[in-house]
Amino acid sequence: MFKKRINAQKSRELFLNSFEPLSQIEILPIEECDGRIIAENIIAGIDVPHYRRAAMDGFAVMASETLGAGTGSPVMLRLANTMEKGACIRVHTGSPMPEKSDAVVMMEDTVFYGDKVEIFTQIHPLKNVGAIGEDVQKGENIITRECLLRPCDIAVLASLGIGNIKVFKRPVVVIIPTGEELVPRWKKNLEDGEVYETNGLMSAMYIRKWGGIPRLLDIVTDSPEKINEAITSNLDADMIITSGGTSVGKRDFVPAVVESIGKLLVHGVGISPGKPTALGIINGKPVLCMPGYPVAGIVALFFYGKAAFRRLGRIPDEPERIVQAELSEKIAGRTGYKTFARVKIDNGRAIPLATTGAGILSSVSKADGFVIIPENIEGRNAGEKVEVVLIE
Amino acid sequence: MFKKRINAQKSRELFLNSFEPLSQIEILPIEECDGRIIAENIIAGIDVPHYRRAAMDGFAVMASETLGAGTGSPVMLRLANTMEKGACIRVHTGSPMPEKSDAVVMMEDTVFYGDKVEIFTQIHPLKNVGAIGEDVQKGENIITRECLLRPCDIAVLASLGIGNIKVFKRPVVVIIPTGEELVPRWKKNLEDGEVYETNGLMSAMYIRKWGGIPRLLDIVTDSPEKINEAITSNLDADMIITSGGTSVGKRDFVPAVVESIGKLLVHGVGISPGKPTALGIINGKPVLCMPGYPVAGIVALFFYGKAAFRRLGRIPDEPERIVQAELSEKIAGRTGYKTFARVKIDNGRAIPLATTGAGILSSVSKADGFVIIPENIEGRNAGEKVEVVLIE
User: Fold this and answer.
1) pTM score, two decimals?
2) A&B contacts, CB < 8 Å
3) How distant, in Å, are the alpha carbons of A177, A242, A245, A290 from that of A222?
4) What ipTM does this complex have?
5) Which one of A65, A78, A258, B144 has the largest count of C-beta atoms within 10 Å of its C-beta?
6) Which of 2.40.340.10, 2.40.50.140, 2.40.50.220, 3.30.70.360 would CATH assign to domain A322-390?
7) Distance (Å, rounded) from C-alpha A118 to C-alpha A112?
8) Of B162, B247, B320, the CB nearest to A57
9) What digits encode the pLDDT tens for the residues B159-173?
10) What DSSP state is assigned to residue A247?
């Protein structure tokens, strides 16, 4: 029988608080670090720019010499190679500012012929000049440990001349599909009672998408010994996901096996579909036991698996992709459960798909996202504005 | 000089309408197809399930024999191996339904001892029975051409026993960083006037993140011949991105080179930062000329580059990740320009970062996202609710 059913949020907190994020690091070239979590603080070793630079194309001047210049009253300067009274020097965006010059007159505000340059605007010192360190100052903490690195962050590292950095290792997740009805997808001509394995494959692909390293095992039959062996021979992994065998039938051994090796925290949770989910810890590693029914499995994977994976890998929270839509017809929640209703989005309307049938995998593929109904709400009515969390 | 400046939206439409999506396909194993665009309609070749299956653990029965059963008035059946009057057969979730049986009584509604089974509930035919094809019907169009494949879609393909599928090829994007001030990031000890190349690296990483194949060239100096050579020797690629040399200075040759080889559509656009962006077409391939200033470059890359890349690769639109926040202080838009203001999000508040300084790369890294101010709006006020489009 199930342990006492535990509320969705509470069971997830219990799960997440029962293991620690990974601490192992690796050193990688920056160009391989998109989406990785940095494991060090980056202190700028140089100023960027490291020299005073022109911020515009034009002429470097001593600003005081433009005093009184205007559209009708140009100041005349002499094009030169070194700065002195009455001189100006041609500069491009990014060029070093010549010594003694302190401002740049934009090309548009000048007319020049031969070595004569007419200046049609009065400018103040530092105008159109990029100061040393205006982008990054030497000694500045430019990126903080445990940030998720985006390409624009890596560009900043490149601007500092940094080649390699420390990042946290990507979690290795072993995935164990169980069930004597399952056959690999390369078998031809199914017998009655045979079903192609899909949950393990799908979980492996989500783990990869989330930034982890999946290790998808061969199908394990419904045998406590075989399940035990599959788990214990993969305890070098950082997280364990099993699929199937979590209900309370004669062939459902997975939670008991977890309990026999480690600690079963929860069996039976307040998500729908997904009630037969079990959560455990073995050797300090999170174990998610997904129900074998595909829709229940995917809901458990998203609600528990993704959160656990992200905590393990120190990946900061990010908002889901959400679309606002008007519900085309009523959907019912299941009292006491956080209900994940599959919907298709069509022209601003959210159209519920078969809300029963946790076994109907194709309903997830047909869905654009979930409308999530909290435990204490009976359902949502036709015409209501709802948030649709897109299925990634 | 710039061509006439063209409005942000209009220039993007012009750009997107001037080339066609790619048509080349490749055949790949399904497990490599996450995030890919399918290039065929998938018609189910089998029913899923292909046999009548039990949807619960329990006993297969002839429903008519449970007539009158109730909590206080069980019907007694005999545990058997073949179905006949008065018999029932033990089944598990997913087992084939025995011939002649038409319903399953859940284990919870029975008590059994030896070969006697007491049934405590009356059930109707088809109860707890999964029909042939209840998930997918043979002949059904289960996935439509040009869908973006998610792991849950690939799971459906696996459930049909499909091993390989046709997908559109990933766009190859050549990236050409230009500028005589640029040096590669492995050079030690910069001279005055030298800057590490960052825009090319950053663009390459975004292209990879978006699902493309970047080809990042070595730095090209500000020479029309060298720029021409870099472009023309890479016309096997599907898209061209250049960085730098797009302004109207003495060293800005890129738009003219594009014009000399193909067609320059636009030079000077209504985005801020990013005005010196140029857009062109060479041999039917989109060419994005990003300004060299890093913030201008990234805005051009997001606004034009991403849209063009997605059209090329037939990638459907997806909503941005957005966070609602309260603006901590006023930000000004630039009249006539779609303005991208960098903000940091802290505790539900959007805090503007240096809104000037298109050269300040670190400001993008410090930002969580952009508040986008339309052309016809002066700005947004402190305390206003704004949408922050997260920088990915």
Assistant:
1) 0.94
2) 229
3) 10, 12, 7, 14
4) 0.93
5) A258
6) 2.40.340.10
7) 6
8) B247
9) 999 999 999 999 999
10) S
